[in-house]
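Figure S4 source data
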Amino acid sequence: MDIDKIYDNTNTRISRRQLIKIAGILLGSSLFPISAYAKNPDREVLYRKIVSDLKMTMDPDKNQPKDVWATPEQSILIHSCYDKLTKIQRFVGFANFNYIDFGSVVYFAKRERKTGRFFGTTPERTMPFTRKEIEFMRNIFELDARVYGFYGKKVTFDINQKINEREIVNMIGHYITKGSALDKYNMIKKSIGRLSDDYGNEIILRVTSGIRNLAKQMRLFYRKAIRLAQRPGETFLYTLDLDNGKKRLTEVEQLREKYNFLKNKITELEKRHMAYNLKKDERKDFLLSQGFHLLNLSAASRSLAPPGYSWHGRYDFDIGIKNTMYRQLNFDKRFITTPLFKELFTAGYINLADLRYQQHNGLGVRFEPWHIKVEQNATTNDLEQIAKSNIYIPKKDTIE
C-alpha cells in the first residue's frame, strides 16, 4: 500500500486522522499479513526457487580444504568435557540444563552426585572438571570463531551468563523468553490454523529448541564435533593453536605420533564408560579407541554455533513438527518442503528476514529454515541473574 498513490488516485485531500488510520493499516499488515497477501503469486515463485536451490546447498558435514581441526590433545579434551557435561545434564534434567549457568555446572560437577544411570549395580556420578578442562572450555569460548570459519556475530561475552527463570516460559522440555520471542511464537502458532498431512492427520507445531545457555551450547558443539570424528586423509591440515588463537598448518603424521603418545588418556575415557554412553545416547562409536581420529571444528561450526555465538543464548528459537512423518525433517534442510513451512512462508507469516541463517549465507553456517530470528522488544527484560538455590533439581532433597 502506497500513501502517495492513494492521494493521487483519490484526488482529494487526506485528513490527519485518515493518514494516521492508513499508517496503522500499513503497520498492522506488516506484522499480520492480510488474507489477500497469502494469494500473492510472487511468494509461491520465491518458495519454489528456495526448494529448487536445495540441491545446490552445501553439505555442512563435508570436509573443506581450509577446515581447522582439533589436535589429538584437544580432541580428547572435547570428549572428556562432553562426557562430564552430559553427566550433569542427566543429573539436573534435560529441560533444566537448557538454562543453568556455567558456574552452576562446575559446582554440580564437584559434588559428584548420582546421575540416575547405572553400570550393573554401580551408579554413575558426576565428575569434577580438571583445571585443564575448564581452561580449555574458556579458551574455546573466548576464541574468535572466525579462525575456523564461523563469521556470525558473538552474542554472549560472559561465560558465567545467568538466565532469569522468571523471564522464560516452559514449552515442554524447551524454554522461550517472554516478550518478543513468545509473541512471535504465538503469532506463528495462531497463523497456521489447522494443517494436515497426506493422510488427514493434524500437524502439530512444537518448539524444538529454545533458550540455551553456555553450558548447553558447549555440549551441543562438542557433541557435533564428536559425531564428525574421522581419520583425516590429507597429508597436511590446519589445526587450532589455542596459545595464539590462530590456525597452524600441520603434518598429519606428526598428529598421529601425538595421538599414540596420548593413548593412556583415551584409556581413562574408556574406564569412564565413554564408549557405552556414546552408544546409548548418540548411537555413535567411541572412535578414538579404534585408532587415530581427529575432530573437524570447522565442520562442527557449520551446524552448531560455537559457544558464545548462538542466538539461542538470547531470544531465538527453533520450530518443528511434533507428530506425523514430517517430524523426521526437523533440523533438516528439507524442512522447507513440509506443509508447516510452506504455509508459513507462502502466506507471508514468516519471511526470509525471519530466518537467522538463510540459504547461501556468508556466515559459514548451514541453511536453517526452522531457526526463527527474534529481535529484542524494548519492553523485554534482558537475561538476568538467578541464584543457584533457585534452580530446580528433580528430587534434590533425596539425592545423597
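Figure S5 source data
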Amino acid sequence: MLARVTRSGVTESVHDGAVAVMDTDGRLLASYGDIDALFFARSSVKPFQATVSAECGADLPPEWLALACASHTGAPIHVATVRDMLRTSGLSERDLGTPADWPSGRNRDRLLRASQIWPLPVYHNCSGKHAAFLRACRAQGWDTAGYTEPDHPLQQRFRSLLSEVTGQADFEVGVDGCGAPTYTVSVRTLARAFSRLGNDGHFDDVFSAMHRFPRLVSGMEMPDAEFAIHTHGISKRGAEANLGLAIRGFGSIAIKVLDGESRPIGPVVTDVLDQVGWLAPSVADSLRSATRVPMSGGGVEVGTVQSVVRLDVK
C-alpha cells in the first residue's frame, strides 16, 4: 500500500502502486512494489518530447520550452504563450492536433463568467507540446499534417531518445489523450530517464526552463510544481497517476498509482523524499504542507491522504 485515505478516523480508501528511487548514475537506491510493470508514460515524458522539438529547430526560449513540457491548466498565461508560439512561426490554432477542450478548474469558471463558453484546442493541457512539435516541423520542412502519427520523422526521433534514456529497446504504442503517440515504460525505466534528465548536461536547457517556471509547466497548486519550488529539481506528472521527479545532485524518483488516482502522489513522493534524506527538515515540513490532500466534511477537514509507503532500501 502506498497511501490510505482517512475520514473521521476511519480508513475509507487505499491506494497501491510502485516507487523507484535512483541516484545520479541511474542506480537503484530504494523501491516499493512492482517497479517493472508496464504502463503508458503519457505526459510524464514531455520533457523529452520538448528536447526533441528544440533539437529539431523549434527555437524555444525558456518560457516556451517550459510550455512545451507542460500539462497546463488553460490559465491566461498558458493560452497566450501557446498562441505566441504558433503565431511567430506562421501557424494558427487550426494547425493544432489537440482535440477541443476546456480549461480546468478555476480557469474554466473564469471563462464561463466571461461568457466564453466554447472549448478550443488551445485550451487542451498538451497544446504547448503540440505548438513546439509544429514549430519543429516548420524548421525541418516536414509536413505538419500528420505530425502526431508514430511514423512521422519527429515522433521517430522522440522514440529513439526515449529508448536511449529509459534503456528500453521495445515499447507498446498507444494514443495519448492529445492524439500524439504514447509509449509504455515502467517505474524503473521512468526513474532511469529522470535521473538522466536531472543530471546529464544534454538536458540542461529543459531542466532550467522547468525549474524556473514550474507553474507554466503544471499550473497552480499542483504537486509537480511544488516539488520544483521546494527543491533544486523538476517534476512532471502523467495521466493515470504517474510522475517523474529529478533533483540535481541527488537523483530521481518515479511513481505509478495502480488505480490511476493522482491524489496520493503529492503526499507519497514527499514522504519518499524525506525517507531517503533528500530534504532539509524545514523544507520537508513546508513541502508536506504544500502537498497535503485534506478530506472535507461539512465544510471542515475531517481526514487526509496519508502516505504509508515503506521503501526497500538497496
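The mean pLDDT is 94. The first helix runs from residue 46 to 55.
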